[in-house]
Amino acid sequence: MELVCVRHGRTAWNRAGRFQGQSNTPLDGVGRAQARALAARLASERFDLAIASNLKRALDTAKIIGAAADVAIFEEPRLREMRFGSWEGLTWSEIAERTPQKIIVPQPDAHVTPGGESFAELCSRVQPALSKVTARLPRNGRALIVSHAAVMHAILWLMLDGSSESALGIVLAPASILRLRRDSQSADTERDGAASDKWTFEAVDGD
Fold first, then answer.
1. Which of 46, 98, 116, 180 is a plausible cystine mate for 85, CB 3.0–4.6 Å?
2. Cβ(32)–Cβ(173) below 8 Å
3. Which residues of the chain have pLDDT under 50?
4. Is 121 one of the annotated active-site residues of the chain?
5. Catalytic-role residue among 81, 117, 148, 153
């Protein structure tokens, strides 16, 4: 079983270094080109299921890939980006200017923004959507999941048993591809009644 997780293409806010969160920013010209390049790269792969965040930047990326791979895209609101509250639309320097009394650490598990959500809350939101995908996949199936950087970190966290070093230490640029695989032996063991659900991190690839 394989999960092919893709981050959306670039937006103007990515280029400017602005927090996007759940703001519905569209792909820019480079982002659309990245989506087309992803589509060409993934066109030959067979996907049993494809889902995407319903935010425009992810959904448009997914639709371009889906058209090339001949797979329907299902919208999944639980895969929306982490909610950054009052930080959305701001850069790190603008945030630092507004909150000079705080030490800001740019890690999703280190700070909860005003009006935002914690990394733990994000993981709780993503987990049922992820479980639904894996439950629907056949033993050797493959799913396409198009979402956002923090959501992909949450997927890694959940699949790698909460290892923050493994999950949060990976840079996921726009149009990155992250592959997670579950070996057949783990699936056989689970059917035999033992608690085994071993996923391995395969690769990160992107600009």
1. 116
2. no
3. 186-196
4. no
5. 81
Q: Parse the chain into domains and list their residue ranges.
A: 2-205
- The residues pairing with 4 across neighbouring beta strands, listed in sequence order, are 144, 179
Catalytic site includes residue 111: no
Query: What mean pLDDT is reported for the chain?
Result: 87
Per-residue b or e along 119-131, where b marks 16 or more CB atoms closer than 10 Å to that residue's CB? beebbebbeebbe
Considering the candidates 8, 76, 117, 153, report the single residue annotated as catalytic.
Answer: 8
CATH no. for 2-205? 3.40.50.1240
- Strand 142-147 with 49-52, pairing: parallel
Predicted pLDDT at 190: 43
